[in-house]
Design brief:
Number of helices: 3
Strand content: under 5%
Radius of gyration: 24 Å
Helix content: 55-70%
Distance between the termini: 27 Å
Structural class: mainly alpha
Largest sheet: none
Order of helices and strands: HHH
Number of strands: 0
Length: 113
């Protein structure tokens, strides 16, 4: 379903308009780009933009994964050298779970959120 006139133009689709089969659904599914309805063909080919955006997201994800893996290795090494921390670890884990359970009980279930 296109929106006539204005900044969206006749060939644009707003998110939630239900324009099934217009290519927007495929764009959201493959790239996960919330900006898809606002992309303009004047800024370059969408066929080129989607793989570039996907590659950028993949690189950022890989860098974050490596950073977290490195940090967890460093923390694990630090914990192995500290027997007092190791002894307290089960208690800390138990407190964390109790705290999360308490938070879940206080906030409750909110349908639609």
């Amino acid at each position: 379903m296109g929106v006539e006139g204005g900044e969206h133009g006749p060939d644009r689709c707003r998110a939630g308009d239900g324009g099934a089969g217009d290519g927007q659904d495929l764009t959201f599914g493959l790239a996960g780009a919330a900006e898809a309805p606002y992309r303009s063909s004047a800024q370059g080919s969408q066929t080129v933009q989607i793989p570039i955006l996907g590659t950028v997201f993949w690189i950022i994800g890989a860098i974050w994964d490596l950073a977290f893996a490195s940090a967890s290795g460093a923390i694990g090494t630090w914990l192995k050298r500290r027997p007092r921390v190791q002894a307290a670890q089960p208690r800390l884990e138990g407190l964390a779970y109790l705290g999360l359970a308490g938070w879940a009980a206080i906030t409750g279930s909110r349908p639609g959120h």
